[in-house]
Amino acid sequence: MIALIDYGAGNLTSVRKALTALGANFATPERPEECSRFSALIVPGVGNFAATSALVGPWRDTIADTVRQGTPLLGICLGMQWLFEGSDEAPEVPGLGVLEGRVTRLRGNSDAGLKIPHVGWNALNFRRPSPRGADLSYPRSQMLAGLDDGAHVYFTHSYAAPVTDACVAATTHGDTFASVVERGNVFGVQFHPEKSSDAGLRIIRNFLEVTRSTPSAAATGAEAEC
Amino acid sequence: MLTKRIIACMDVRDGQVVKGVQFQELRHAGDPAELAERYNVEGIDEVVVLDITATLESRQALARTISAVAHRIFLPLTVGGGIRKEADAAAAVDAGADKVSLNTAALNNPALISTLARRYGSQAVIVAIDAKRRGNGFAVYVRSGTSDAARDAVEWAREAESRGAGEILLTSMDRDGTRSGFDCEMTAAVAKAVNIPVIASGGAGDLDHFCDVFTHGHADAALAASIFHYDDTRVSELKKYLHGRNIPVRL
């Protein structure tokens, strides 16, 4: 059972619809302490980073503990930005901080047709060899399994996370930013997989595969790789 | 690189897709959910459902239509037509819309743009502008094109952006349904005046028209209805053509 965290940032209808279509079991926990009962967490969200202030306190502490125990976590859009230390959009609100770096505003350039917000379909440029590739010296990306380098997905955002070693796919809109991050049991996507047709559904399915192959954190007491 | 979006619009009345010429002469074009699924397979980037009657009875039918479409496709879905107050937008979003498109209501009550942008984020709020050429400017019309709003499209688009609109959907009433090409001049005037994406609409007739509106018109997206509904132009064929003309598209 997956916990879909609802903290009031945007509408969760489309995420629910995609999870249902893929046959996932999910529920929305009402209290933070319920998180440990779930096999995976999804933090969705659209809008201003300030909305994540609803997670500051018990939610943030519990989610951090749950992730530290090895439970897979997927952040979508604002939920991915929240995985980092914080954002220039709402500097007073701390992020979860499981990935290093801060979220900054995309600069854009109207004269060059680079408008902000970045709205529409853009390419995922793989930072690690394709999961289909022959080079075995790098860890495979689990989130990008079955996708082709350059696959297009649907974005709508003004702020973005830096390219760090957690970044497995980057996207360029004037600036180059992290569009897919993955480290241990922590995953994030800046775009909306639930709005990205077949490529997006594949990415959600890849996360569901991860949750099925991860032993329950509560049962093993495993430490997260990060 | 960010691609240019191709958007299919479905004008819906009583749960069926219809299409007129210059806002008149409606004819039937099929079931919205079935059409949306066909467009998805062909590679459409986004779908717009416009309730063209917008009566109380049609509002309930619309919620069913939105839900049916939203369960068949995993693409951005915009709903417009008769969204007059916050509760109308909430009903559309609850039924599965990702964005709402405001037209007459935004002009009558511009604060509604900000209210919805605060509640759902700017990315969820599209301001639709229906305009026709007048002198050197572009006159805005409301109430499905029947009433002169006494505003200029460029100036109104700027205000809509400042109030929190995330995109502008700009329809040329002169070109709507004529298949004589988008109004590239009007599109460029608005696209250069705002920093948010502009969706060009009205007049799509052949593949070159899309090419023109993305180059000369500086449009971020182009919307069409009838040429896709009746199978005259397939979305996949259009995208291959644009790709061949060095216009970035999702293939």
Level of helix content of chain A?
Answer: 10-25%
Portion in strands of chain A: 15-25%
Structure summary, number of beta strands of chain A: 13
- Give a quick account of the main beta sheet of chain A: strands, pairing sense, barrel closure: 8 strands, mixed
Report mean pLDDT of chain A, rounded to a whole number.
Answer: 89
Helix count of chain A equals: 5
Low-confidence stretches of chain B: none
**CATH class (first level) name of chain B:** Alpha Beta
Would you identify the regions of chain A where 5 or more consecutive residues have pLDDT less than 50? 217-226
* Domain tally of chain A: 1
Report the β-strand fraction of chain B as a percent range: 25-35%
Q: Would you tell me which CATH topology of chain B applies? A: TIM Barrel
The CATH superfamily name of chain B is Aldolase class I
The tally of helices of chain B reads 10
Ends distance of chain A: 23 Å
Report the span from N to C terminus of chain B: 13 Å
CATH architecture of chain A: 3-Layer(aba) Sandwich
State the secondary-structure class of chain B. alpha/beta
The computed structural class of chain A is: alpha/beta
What does this protein structure show overall?
The complex is a heterodimer of chains A (226) and B (251). With 226 residues, chain A is an alpha/beta fold. Chain A has a single domain, classed as Class I glutamine amidotransferase (GATase) domain (Rossmann fold, 3-Layer(aba) Sandwich), CATH 3.40.50.880. Chain A contains five helices and 13 strands. Chain A has helices spanning 13-21, 58-68, 78-81, 197-213, 217-220, and strands at residues 2-4, 26-27, 40-43, 73-76, 86-87, 102-105, 118-123, 125-126, 152-157, 159-160, 167-173, 175-183, 186-189. In chain A, strand 12 (175-183) and strand 13 (186-189) form a beta hairpin. Mean pLDDT of chain A is 89; it is low at 217-226. With 251 residues, chain B is of the alpha/beta class. Chain B has a single domain (5-244), classed as Alpha-Beta Barrel (TIM Barrel). In chain B, 38% of the residues lie in helices and 29% in strands. Chain B contains ten helices and twelve strands. Chain B has helices at 32-42, 56-72, 86-95, 104-108, 111-120, 153-162, 184-193, 207-215, 226-229, 235-244, and strands spanning 5-13, 16-21, 24-30, 46-51, 77-80, 99-102, 125-134, 137-142, 147-152, 167-172, 198-201, 221-224. An eight-stranded parallel beta barrel of chain B has the order 1-4-5-6-7-10-11-12, surrounded by seven helices. Chain B is globular, with a radius of gyration of 16 Å. The A-B interface holds A 10-11, 13-14, 17-18, 21, 46-48, 108, 110, 113-123, 152, 154, 156-157, 172-173, 192, 194-197, 200-201 and B 1-5, 40, 45, 70-71, 73-76, 93-94, 96, 98, 120-124, 166-167, 195-197, 218, 220-221, 250.
